[in-house]
Amino acid sequence: KQGVWEPWWTTLAVDILANDDHGVLIDVGGHVGWYSMLAMCAGRHAYALDADPEHVAVLRGNATREGWDRQLHAAVGWLDADSRPLAFTEVGPVRLAKVDVEGAEADAAAVLEPLLGLRVVDYALMELSPGFGDGWRRAVEVFTAAGYIGHLVPDKGADVAEFEADPLGVTLACGFVPAWITDQATVLFASPTAEP
């Protein structure tokens, strides 16, 4: 797809957000808020975290312009081993957690871990970045220990028409083995209780 930011992720995220009316988006590594804006466009609340104050300011400005500022909960923050885990009472059920943190995957998974243990996160879309160390392996362990099933998100070389017709179905049919990861890749972790 030309002219769409991260077309494979975007198509999959839109499909997930459109197919169920419960739950929020958690956007860890929110950048300027593309996925948060998609969620708010779908009528959902978005909880976004990014380390760059300018990114969060752009997101807040865009949400305000669209009249969605009440749906946005954005914060500037850095993930590390001391980051406080999220509690269910803070966010409620989560339809999609999007994680794009360039090497801080283990810290992001630790923040999400209490929610994963309760299985209140339906899906988590995570970019794994082995070029930044082994933190991505710990993140995979956190998700699998909570019973989530990983699926490698199709990208270049996949059948675009088939993917666009059923992004979630095509992704859920893809396997995932951590040993396959030698370069940056995107994985969709699905709760065993999630409704497509």
Give a nutshell description of this structure.
The chain is built from 8 helices and 7 strands, in the order H-E-H-E-H-E-H-E-H-E-H-E-H-H-E.
Question: Could you explain the architecture of this structure?
Answer:
The protein is α/β, with parallel strands linked by helices. It contains eight helices and seven strands. It has helices at 7-18, 34-41, 53-66, 88-91, 105-118, 135-145, 160-165, 167-172; strands at 24-28, 46-50, 72-76, 94-99, 121-128, 149-152, 185-190. The chain has a seven-stranded mixed beta sheet with strand order 3-2-1-4-5-7-6, with helices on both faces. Helix 3 (53-66) links the parallel strand 2 (46-50) and strand 3. Helix 5 packs parallel to helix 6. The longest helix is centred in the N-terminal third of the chain and has 14 residues, at 53-66.
- Which residues form runs of ≥5 with pLDDT under 50? none
> Helical residue percent?
25-40%
Described by the principal axes of the CA atoms, the overall outline is: globular
How would you sum up the major sheet? Answer: 7 strands, mixed
**Helical segment count:** 8
What is the percentage of strand-forming residues? 15-25%
Count of DSSP strands: 7
What order do the helices and strands follow?
Answer: HEHEHEHEHEHEHHE
- On the 0 to 100 scale, the average pLDDT is 92
